[in-house]
Amino acid sequence: MIIKPKIENPFGPAQGGQGSKISFQKGAYLPVIMVTSVLFLGLSMAVAGFALSNLKDAKLHMQTVSALDVAEAGVNYYMWHLAHDNKDYCDGNVCPQGDGPYGPYAHDYTDQSGNVVGTYDLYITPPGLGDAVVNVKAVGKIKGESMDRIVLADLGMPSFARYAFLTNTECWFGVNETTNGPVHSNVGVHFDGTANGIISSSSATYRPTSSFGGDGQLHDGVWGNGGPKNYWVFPVPTVDFNRVSVDFANLKTESKTGGIYLDSSKSRGYYLKLRSDGKIDEYRVSGERSTGITANFLGTLDAPGNGVVYVNDNVWVDGTYNGRITIAAYIDKSGPALIKIKDNLLYGAKDGTASIGLVSQGNIEIPDYAVSSLEIDAALLSQTGHVWYPDSKGPVKSSISIYGSISTNQYWTWSWVSGSTVIAGYRNTLQTYDPYLTLSPPPEYPTTGSYAILSWREE
Q: What Å distances lie between residue 364 and 98, 119, 133, 383, CA to CA?
């Protein structure tokens, strides 16, 4: 049996004693429906507009990224071009008169299927006098689009002077030593000091000798108690000291065409006194003793036009120089030639306007008769020998300060130590890297042999 419940009027009895009655007229829902529809339509349009805006932004972003890719491709192309012809600054064309920039030189940029997807225009600025950096401006565009992206890059062969310290042997930096700038060994680095730049080795592992703190065990290419360890990089490609022979030949040619070439002195060598006015006082060295050299004045040389001095003999050098100069010492038949620094060798200013490069076939030495407090502002490179204070039984001197870089085939030292006591050489040593050498080394300074992007920025 179904029982229908009795439903009472919840509102109580209405006036007149009858229960209330609720009713709706036709069309009562229409305003609600219209309002809801308008809101839904507005929301749909907002969503559609947002989606369209995002689509446009995504397309614009893709175009800008693609244009930047095309501009970068232009820089990479010209780096490849220079690797095959490092004196061509006009993209295979005859260069117009003037110092540049030359261009524009237009190229199509194609995808893997050979379809042209964009173009880039190149503007090339050749190196300035005594410089080695080529500036490339690449303007990239996508086909059918007006927007472009512009990349400016400095291209060059990194020189030996890009390293604060470079050696073809193993090396060891002690607890109290701090390095500034890149350090590299072709063998391995025992590093207990503090680094303010990359510490790299060409070896994945090596077995350090006892002279360099080895314990008979195999160690990583860079190891020790120093740091920060995130600066340690190994293995990396070897820096080839043998290729400096190519640079010596180039320096010789440059000295004869726009610099200074000094043939054999028929004696001990030449003493070159650098002057702040850019000139060089030339002496012939006839003798050397523990107290100094005997030298005869030959005359004053004008500053080399291209900054290159090539000497087919040994060289003694000191003085102050305001310009940019590289002095190479190479004895053709009876080498290796030596370079000796007997007194302060200084830049006129440490602001990138001055640089001194010393490139020796053999050792670069500090003799016993050098001043007790010595400052050297220079990039020093020994192809086959040492950069050092050679006399382990010589006098103990006060201090030596190096502002520049050191590249040495064999180990280097300014001090000879027994236990913790300096028994010869300089008691206090300070080496600071000249940061201007990275992009602006001395004229025709030896390079590591391959072009690279030295700096990159977007205009």
A: 39, 51, 27, 10
Give the residue from 434, 431, 408 showing the smallest Cα distance to 354: 434
Q: Indicate the pTM of the whole model.
A: 0.76
Q: What Cα–Cα distance (Å) separates residue 377 from each residue in 153, 400, 410?
A: 28, 11, 21
Q: Under 8 Å CB-to-CB from 126, ≥6 apart: which residues?
A: 89, 99, 100, 102, 134
Which CB contacts under 8 angstroms, 24+ apart, belong to 432-435? 432/180, 432/401, 432/402, 432/403, 433/164, 433/180, 433/181, 433/182, 433/197, 433/404, 433/405, 434/350, 434/355, 434/377, 434/379, 434/403, 434/404, 434/405, 435/181
- Rounded to an integer, what is the distance from CA 354 to the centroid of its chain? 18
Query: Is residue 421 within 8 Å of 451, Cβ to Cβ?
Result: no
Q: Tokens for 69, please give them.
A: 């890719």
Q: Please report the pLDDT score of residue 65 as a whole number.
A: 60
Distances (CA, A) of 168 to 199, 242, 411, 442, 448: 14, 11, 8, 21, 13
Question: Which residues of the chain have a pLDDT value below 70?
Answer: 1-65, 129-131
